[in-house]
Amino acid sequence: MAEIKFKLPNTIRVKLNTSCQYKCKFCHQEGDVESGDINHFELASALKFLKDDLEIKRVHFTGGEPTLYGDFINILENCKQNNLDCALTTNGQFDINKLPELIKAGLGSINFSLHAMDVYSFLKTQNFNGQIKEASAWANDCLQRTLQNIIIANTMLPTKVNCVVGSEFISSEEVLHFCIKNNLKLRLLNSLELGKEAVDNIERLIKKNDATMDGHEVTFLSSSHRLDYKIGSYEFGVKCIRSFYLQSICQDCDLRKQGKCLECFYGLRLEGSPLKVRLCLSKNEKPFVQSFDEFIKSKEYQEIKDIYNSVKNYLCHDAS
Ligand code: SF4
Questions:
Q1: Closest of 22, 18, 20 to residue 34, by C-alpha
Q2: Measured in angstroms, how far is the CA atom of residue 57 from the centroid of ligand 1?
Q3: Strand-strand pairing, 107-113 and 212-219
Q4: Which domain holds residue 195?
Q5: Could you tell me if the CB of 256 is within 6 A of ligand 1?
Q6: Closest to 247 measured CA to CA, from 288, 308, 305, 300
Q7: pLDDT, tens only, 135-188
Q8: In this structure, are residues 160 and 110 in contact, taking their beta carbons and an 8 Å threshold?
Q9: Closest Cα to atom 8, ligand 1: which residue?
Q10: CATH number of the domain to which 294 belongs
Q11: Total of domains in the chain
């Protein structure tokens, strides 16, 4: 039987920007396509507050494409000064020559989004409806740059491939085989909007490749959990969503009652200028999104702190 591990939620997601070279059809833009660039100065003080008050240890930068954010080096340096680990999810289109500078500034690990290995499948992820011939040179260029950057990055810092599985699993299977061949860490994720269809495709992929379950990691205070699989000696993970809700925002939620909640309560996200805290992927009004200053005085934050402290005490008790 697979071992189950529990962990405290000590990572916060920070959405730096909304701009991106891609238009992936399953991208949820962390909830809001119009949140714009984050406020660097407000972010620095918010991270310091959350580190002290909620024991945040790690910052995961997303977007948009975070490497297009102008002040990224300064943000990384600031996190490093505060002893915060930094991770990044990228589409892989950045200039790889800049990676040493990012690492020096504080980047500790990198996740590449890779959802297809061939031009046609890649263009399908971009909802491309025009002439394939016109776009194939661009798509080929994008794919080659990402693949090359993944291989180079893997020699420089902990590197992982994120692959969203959607309405078919052939593309994801090709990504899986690329990762096996290059001994790269892989995490499969289901397209949230497709719901069960995408989850079923992950299961088909697992069965077809004779993968066996090897572990299970559950994050407290979050809907996130991960199943670990093995194919021979190769290991990969599948990120899943479980039904964890925050009572203060989810109890009366119409989407939850209609079975239309995409992600349940995943965790805290920071975004925008002035700086905001996002608690829900599907709703853009208060209290689901609120200013940082309001949030830290809110009943939602109090609920999060109360759960965090009780879970922490439980884990300490469990360990002894
Ligand atoms: S849609 Fe948002 S508010 Fe509603 S249940 Fe899901 S996470 Fe909670």
A1: 18
A2: 25
A3: unpaired
A4: 3-319
A5: yes
A6: 300
A7: 999 999 999 999 999 999 999 999 999 999 999 999 999 999 999 999 999 999
A8: yes
A9: 250
A10: 3.20.20.70
A11: 1
